[in-house]
Amino acid sequence: MLIDLHTHTNASDGTDTPSQLIDKAINKRLDVLALTDHDTTRGWAEASSALLNHPSNSNMQLVLGSEISCQDENGISIHMLGLLFDGDYQPLIQELEKTRENRLSRMEKIVARLNEAGIEITLAEVYAQKRDDATLGRPHLADALVARGHVASREEAFAALLHNKSKYYINHYSPSPMDAIKLIKAAGGVAIIAHPLASQRGRTISLDLFDQLIAAGLDGIEVDHRDHSDLEKSELLRLAIERDLIVTGSSDYHGTGKMNELAEHTTNPAQWEALEARANSRRVVAR
Known about the structure:
By secondary structure, the protein is α/β, with parallel strands linked by helices. The protein has helices at 18-27, 44-52, 90-116, 123-127, 138-148, 154-162, 177-186, 209-216, 230-243, 269-277, and strands at residues 3-4, 32-35, 61-71, 77-83, 190-194, 220-224, 246-249. The protein folds into 2 domains: 3-97 and 172-277, TIM Barrel (Alpha-Beta Barrel), CATH 3.20.20; 103-162, DNA polymerase, domain 1. The protein is built from 10 helices and 7 strands.
């Protein structure tokens, strides 16, 4: 079985529409695909309809979720994958909306810093790179910088200007990872921390923080991810085994302009079965 539990569309900072993602996943012969756009559930309806009405009569299962932006007390960015939660649970949906709104003022400040450094870019150019209701993010700014000719690709934009250690980087409001986990669990879903030791993205969390995350209800760790070194994967696998956490592997696919390929890392079927059993209801979308 091919199981990919972390992907994005243009409902946030991916380039594919939800329907296009479904097409690609079916063509890739995935058995289980999770849609996890940043701080939103706005791609759920289109993706579900695309699967249920797909001409291939695919048996692929669609897992609806979101990658929730969080930060700890030290301002370190942490991403929490919420899967299989009730999309009508308003406390969680309201928190996602609050986080989305704060991304707007953050982008204004990042653009201002770039302009002060002589890197000309406008908010209008950034907004032109996203769908109207998409979650605004740094990848849209990266695409605008590419369009302006400042850099050649998204990868170069992040490496040179937009990484977490950059002088242009600015945090935005987001819940603590513990609060995010509690909201996901209250909504009946499961919580997996995404790429927690991906050091090239910026500062990483302390392994000691996992005690607080587990106490809040953490279900699993995304271990197999292209941004984890072999040593980081070993450390996380050891921790998962010691603390009885589910291990996942995912592509973190964003479409064109990013190297990640669908199903380049996958989740073991037994681990997926254990993860799905932790949700309070079976919410996968399938024929």
